[in-house]
Amino acid sequence: MSKVRAKEPSKGAMLRFVATDEDQALVKLLTANGYAQRLVCKYISHRRGSHISESTLKRAFARGLEIGKVELETIALTQFMAA
Fold first, then answer.
1. Which of 64, 69, 76, 80 has the lowest CB atom count within 10 Å?
2. Does 2 reside within a domain?
3. This prediction's pTM
4. Between helices 62-82 and 21-32, what is the axis angle to 10°?
């Protein structure tokens, strides 16, 4: 009986994208202003310098995509009411 090994990443394997706080803020802002996801992807760079895919955007920025517009409107309305 042969043993099955788990796949190990090759030397050239791409590392998983990790979003920074700056990236998170940018995604929220762009989403709140109505940018399409394919355009938001072009603004977020991967470590190798190219843009991220839509699937990576959805995985790494799920919360920002959901609440971006609501959060921005809440801040704006709160400041308006305080003035």
1. 80
2. no
3. 0.69
4. 70
What total of structural domains would you count in the chain?
1
In a domain, 14, yes or no: no
Instruction: Give the range of the structural domain holding residue 70, as residue numbers without chain letter.
Output: 21-82
Reported as a single tens digit per residue, the pLDDT across 37-67 is 999 999 998 777 889 999 999 999 999 898 8
- Rounded Cα gap, residues 66 and 16, in angstroms: 22
Does any domain span residue 5?
A: no
The answer on pLDDT for 2 being more than 60 is no
Q: How far is CA 31 from CA 1, 28, 68, 82, in A?
A: 53, 5, 6, 25
